[in-house]
């Protein structure tokens, strides 16, 4: 059965929520990171995620819906990022691993959304554009984690 507009709005708003959680998590990680390198990286990533949120909110409005403007406190991504606090006592390597776990979670959510065959083309393009940025962020954190493990 083809999706209704409501289904599309719900799908995109779900991505808005998890992306807000991710941005919030990066802001927390930036506050708590020890090295200035990670502090600035996490701040930049939080800002980038806020832009993705705006793009997705615009798509919800285009669909005639009301965009979500806050994350879901219960979201697994948010819980993962809260683990950053615990990781901080263990240094930046633990923070990077924790952030990367959050990245795995958000990437999986986007991939699940893109696996949906009934998404209308404009909505798919909006999600694909957001996913490309999310995946780049994920891959960067993965590469940093692997570099740390190798050293």
From TrEMBL:
The DUF2383 domain covers 9-115
Any matching Pfam family: DUF2383
Q: Which Gene3D superfamilies match?
A: 1.20.1260.10
Q: Protein name, please? A: DUF2383 domain-containing protein
Organism classification, top ranks? Answer: Bacteria, Pseudomonadati, Pseudomonadota, Alphaproteobacteria, Caulobacterales
């Amino acid at each position: 059965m083809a999706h209704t507009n409501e289904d599309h709005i719900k799908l995109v708003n779900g991505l808005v929520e998890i992306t807000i959680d991710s941005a919030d998590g990066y802001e927390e990680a930036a506050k708590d990171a020890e090295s200035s390198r990670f502090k600035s990286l996490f701040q930049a990533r939080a800002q980038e995620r806020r832009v993705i949120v705006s793009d997705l909110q615009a798509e919800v409005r285009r669909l005639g819906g009301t965009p979500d403007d806050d994350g879901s406190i219960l979201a697994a991504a948010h819980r993962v990022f809260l683990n950053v606090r615990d990781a901080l006592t263990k240094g930046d390597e633990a923070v990077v691993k924790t952030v990367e776990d959050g990245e795995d979670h958000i990437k999986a959510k986007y991939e699940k959304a893109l696996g949906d065959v009934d998404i209308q083309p404009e909505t798919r393009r909006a999600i694909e554009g957001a996913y490309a940025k999310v995946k780049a962020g994920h891959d960067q954190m993965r590469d940093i984690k692997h570099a740390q493990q190798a050293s």
